[in-house]
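User: I'll paste a sequence; please echo it back and then give the predicted structure.

Assistant: Echoing your sequence first, then the prediction.
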Amino acid sequence: IIPDCIADPSIAEFDGTFYLTATTDDCPREGFGRWHNGPAMVWKSTDLVNWRFEGHLMPESNDMLYWAPSRILRRGNRYLLFPTLNSKIRVAAAESPDGPFHLIANSKEQHLLDTIDAEVFVDDDGRGYLFSNHRRAWRMNEDLTGVVGEPITIQTKRSGYSEGPIVFKRQGIYYYLYTLS
C-alpha cells in the first residue's frame, strides 16, 4: 500500500483524513547488509487504500536517528508526536497534523524518557498513559508533555526484551500488543 520501506507504522484520523507516520529506512541493498535510518515522513489517505506521500513531517530531526513515532494525537489546540530520536523518546508539537512538528522542551535533558518506542494512549476520562519498550507504562501529565511518577512494568506470560507497544480500548476492554525477541 505504501511504496516505501517503512517499519513501526502508526495511523491517526482527523476530520476524515488518515495520517500514517513510521520509521523510514533505506532497505538493505546487496553488498551493504544494513538498514539506514531515514527522515520523519507522513503519508495521507481518505480511504486507507490510496496513500500519498506528503513530505517531511519534522525537518529538525533530519540529522537525528528517527524511529518508531507514535500516532499523532490532538490535545487542545495542538497536535503531538512522540518519536524516538537518538534512542530517546521526545515530544514534538504542531498546529496541524500535517506539521511541521517541532521539538518542545519538557525536561532538563530535552527529552521525555531515556527509552524507545512510545505509544501514548488517552483514556475516555482524558488521562494519558505512555507505553514503551520493556512493557513499561507511565501516567502522563495533563498536557501530555511529561510523565508523572515511576513506571510500572506490565506483567505478561512471556518475558524477555519487548518493543513496539500498541494500546487500544474496544467495547470496554483494554488491549496491549507488543513484540518479543
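The longest strand covers residues 17-26. The chain has no helices and 18 strands.
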